[in-house]
Amino acid sequence: MNYTGVREVEVVVVGAGQAGLAAAFHLRRVGYEPDRDFVVLDHSPRPGGAWQFRWPTLTYDKVHGMHALPGMGLTGADPRRPSSEVIGGYFDDYERTFGLRVHRPVSVTAVREEGGLPPWKKPVVARAGSVGALTESVGALEGERRLLVETSEGDYAARALINATGTWDRPFWPRIPGQEVFGGRQLHSAQYRGPEAFRAARVVVVGGGTSAVQQLLEIAPVAAATTWVTRRPPVFREGPFGEEQGRAAVALVEERVRQGLPPRSVVSVTGLPMTEAIRRGRESGVLDRLPLFERLTPTGAVWGDGRTVEADVILYATGFRPALDHLAPLRLREPGGGIRMEGTRTLRDARVHLVGYGPSASTIGANRAGRAAAVSIRGMLTEDSQPAYEETELAGSLAS
């Protein structure tokens, strides 16, 4: 679908993963219509968010904490099918069921002020709205002032924006001395397509998260040797993970966001769940962890104490960073490198909401953030002091 000129809409949603679809669902619930009042833009080739890019051997039974989207459960899935197929199909059905009319593939290149000073440089006023007494910029309340959303299918002028771009497009590569001289392969876990590419290789896996552990356990049976290294000792979580523990984990992430620091993921503060596969990996020695090496050499890795490991492949399972470069013209970042927020809205521009960011970077967190953003935007744009519909608690896991 191609548009010429600038098309005016009330809200642009950027991204159609879990957070973006939840936001679109709730925008419909509060009275907005897709392609009339709001538009959902997604640069991925098909439905599924980041799940569509997961490696084929990550079957659905290995996924922990995938929470259903609001209004429609995921039932009857074959646990042996790749999670990319199961969840991709589920997202596709969801988009069709609720008529969300996602535009794809569409790249958003920049979001900027349509003209004049950014709203956060103007005086602020306080107004009591549907989400409580919040301090909002004057610019956010001026109907004529819009955000210009520049995209590959044309530009949109929006009164509000919900950003749900996640992290998949920004894999984090740590800088380690000697990377340029190492003679083997170096790749990020985002490029991992299964264990066969590592057959008979000596592999060093860097990272202490879920992807690192899952990929290491797959690679070990076919590799000549594996070594697991992490910056900090991994924390394994025994027993159930309940609501109280979930709230405590989210609070830690929220505190960093309040301070204007880059968020840590919710998963990073919950620890690794002690599954049967992890238990076996620890007993067999595959999950015997070493601290991060000091440097790479042409043939392997060297530690400060003189230890060396020969390697053919370095696999960096070192996580991702929020994909927010297109928001740079709005100058939302604080000196600490993060974006300060109140709920889902950014403090520097009340028209911009981030969902799936920081404390909402989990499947259930994304659902709740999508609803909160939709209700907040409706209150701001209509100056409606009443909630659009009753708050409902969503059950589920915080793990993504």
From TrEMBL:
UniProt protein name: NAD(P)/FAD-dependent oxidoreductase
InterPro entries assigned to the protein according to its UniProt record, in alphabetical order: Auxin_biosynth/cation_transpt (IPR050982), FAD/NAD-bd_sf (IPR036188), FAD/NAD-binding_dom (IPR023753)
Keywords: Oxidoreductase
Keyword Oxidoreductase applies: yes
Sequence ranges assigned to domain FAD/NAD(P)-binding in this UniProt record: 10-341
Keyword Oxidoreductase among record annotations: yes
Tree of life domain: Bacteria
